[in-house]
What does this fold into?
Amino acid sequence: MSVVSVALAVPGTSTPVTVEMLVVFALILLALVLFATERFPVDVTAILVMVLLMVLEPWTQISPREGISGFANPATITVLAMLILSTGINRTGLVQLLGRKMAAFAGSDRRKQLAATIGVTGPVSGFVNNTPVVAILVPVIADLAHEGKTSPSKLLMPLSFASMLGGTLTLIGTSTNILASDIAAQLGAENPALGLEAFGMFEFTKLGVVVFVVGALYLRTVGVRLLPERVPADEDLVEEYDLQEYLTDVEVPPESPLVGQTVDEALGDDDLDIDVLQLLRGGEGFSDPLARKEIRPNDTLRLRTNRETLERILEAESLSLSGGPETEDDLGPDDEPPMLVEVVVPSGSSLVGETLASSTFRQRYDANVLAFRSHGDVVRDRFEDIRIRVGDTLLVQAPPDSFTRLVDNEDFIVAHEFDETTYRREKIPFAVGIIAGVVALPALNLLPIVVSALAGVVAMVFTGVLKPTELYSSVEWNVIFLLAGVIPLGIALQQTGAATLLGEAVAATATVLPPIGVLWVFYLATGLLTSVISNNASVVLLIPVAANAAQAIGGNAFAFVLAVTFAASTAFMTPVGYQTNLFVYGPGGYRFSDFLRVGAPLQLLLSVVTVLGIAFFWGVRA
It folds into this structure.
């Protein structure tokens, strides 16, 4: 197919605008809109963009081979291997062990609790992917807060922020660093004048330490004062979710039409917004699967329903009210584990995109959902058909054996620590040794990071740290597909000249700003973009632009690439900017504005610290 190219001149640039560039810009705009609105999962959006790039090859210059190159990209494979290695660490219980030692150290001292949260999370996140670190520590920190009479809201956001700060310490701290390193290496190979190459394992550690220390000091001084207390220190989930009006006990008199029917026959109608949580009979409570249990005279049914539905069935079924639970303690005997627990839906969960109805949640997990917290909004009734998103929090009631299954299920992060969870503690030395080898071999230039990481995966299987069957479930496939989908977009930016055009346009600001000012502009732009789209998509879009802008003004391309990388790795301003923020959003009871209030000053502070640090360590000019 032949394509007619039309070129237009843009003031301040020497590169004309072509039809090819406009097509790529249109695809970028489409991607940004879909990422920001979450119309589709981010990985689906990325694959859509990848397909469009190949379909529009005459304009995008992306062949099918280049379109699918993201799947074989060293960054994608390295991230895949690091996710598996992180799971291996998780299976040993090492992070939980550190968390418990942290809890023993902190006790009920709020300052020690915050210091321990930051001090453990940050360094660990430098060597184990920070996303699973937060997933593991959410229940540890939540329990630490409640046992120490501290609101979890005071510790969970610092947990997420500390993991991001710690991710800047090494190359393997975040998938963003690994992807940025690979993009820099590609740009350096295509244009040697840029002087770019893959990052070393500890190449930017000195800057990462500065950023971590400054961020930690902010969280311990200013941040702790800005953090709200959304969740009461004395946690009672019934009171926290205001469920008193939605939990009711009704007595079944002998004349009720429900007598003789099973629970499912009586109240299992999908049109009724009712969950039967418990059947009370003669002082004994039944909360195991109740669907086939026959209702007898004088039974008491504990229901979750709204006032309107309750009034309707009271009249229709000749039932009588007999009170209801006012607190969590009223829901079960004192000698049993908590009857209620919050579960967070992480990325990669099979529930994402489903509803409670379509996922047959109650049947699959033998559990009832009492409330639904989605992006700060609490829904207490008629939530069966709400589409589940990453970061949503479900308040679940289930029998003790079901809680154990929930803890072991990869579809959830359970915001409460259970002693029944089994770990391979005897494998801790092997796991630590393998991670040390994965880090040391690239640091000593003996092996590329992708080879080192894959070798570590094999070593974990051979030593029994991981079972072969756990390899595939260890991978967050949505992250892998996201990377594979957005990498070709970066290639299209380069090959069509769109990155050069944007770089020259930004470089034009050098007429009014010094090079360090242009560097700061890139940091701010990346931070703002990452607040609404994926951090990995941000580096793919902006690193080529930053490198070209640096070249246009005679700047140090590495400095500009590093500014983009650090800004994308530290997205504090919104809960959707980084998935660790989503993990703490529900359990912390936060509102969207809480992240802006605490995160925006930190982001602004680190923009100055990072840019000045880059200028000090590496210089801004070439």
Q: What stands out?
A: The CA atoms of residues 296 and 496 lie 74 Å apart. The mean pLDDT is 81.
